[in-house]
Amino acid sequence: MALLEVKNLSTYFFTEYGERKAVDGVSFSVETGETFALIGESGSGKTVTALSILNLVDPPGRITGGEIIFDRKPLMLLNREDMREIRGRDISIVFQEPLTSLNPVITIGEQITEQIRAHIKVSGKEARNRAIAALKEARLPSPERVFYDYPHRLSGGMRQRAMIAMALCLRPKLLIADEPTTALDVTIQAEILELFREIKERHHMAIIFITHDFGIIARLADRIAVMRGGRIVEQGGSEDIFYSPRESYTKELLAAVPRIPDALKVAR
Fold first, then answer.
1. What is the CATH class of 4-90+174-267?
2. 142, 111, 141: which is closest to 128 by C-alpha?
3. What is the tens place of the pLDDT at every residue in 9-53?
4. Could you tell me if 223 and 235 are in contact, meaning their C-beta atoms sit under 8 angstroms apart?
5. Where does CATH 3.40.50.300 sit in the chain?
6. Nearest to residue 258, comparing CAs of 214, 219, 197?
7. Is residue 255 classed exposed, middle or buried when 0-12, 13-18 and 19+ CB atoms within 10 A define those classes?
């Protein structure tokens, strides 16, 4: 059985202007230890799909149908307390812009240790040690110093690494990465992608990687689902999608990225 199964998921937004089908009958599965990419243009439903998995869709949005099974648990049937236990501990998410996710008036270390102690009973010293170990694994220079830093004192790449450390500190089974490299320059972007690859291999962790860029997932994904207008229009193994796409929309996205086959060959 897959670690995550999403079956016919629908999430709609009900506004004064009418009903919008942000996610409309989406189905896919993610196996332990694989990287599954959700790709599509802005507004295609990728992020809302991820938020639906975590039950973080705010009004006027609402999950209107489907099933989400994680580690044999039906997430849509869990109460708020049980769902909070799963978030952060078993499923973590890294967002696109860490400045909007990190608290600007609390140090990086405090934010990570708070998450650790919210889920497991450890001393303050043990929580600090775990936090510094996570910062080190995320390849932050001088993790002991970064532990006491505030988000505004870090560069964009360092803030994103701090968010990855926070996501990793409890060794989740599933990591959701929502456009985590979009705001970074090309060099830092490559380093962050390599970090995700190392994390997956070291911990045999499943990753859902959300992006609009085929050039990024050429180096990372095992399987790919292409989204458009709230639906999955095509999905399959990464080589099948890159070399033998069936849908015209997938072909258009691929055509916008030069030399994808070469990038894939280098990655493999």
1. alpha beta
2. 111
3. 999 999 999 999 999 999 999 999 999 999 999 999 999 999 999
4. yes
5. 4-90+174-267
6. 214
7. exposed
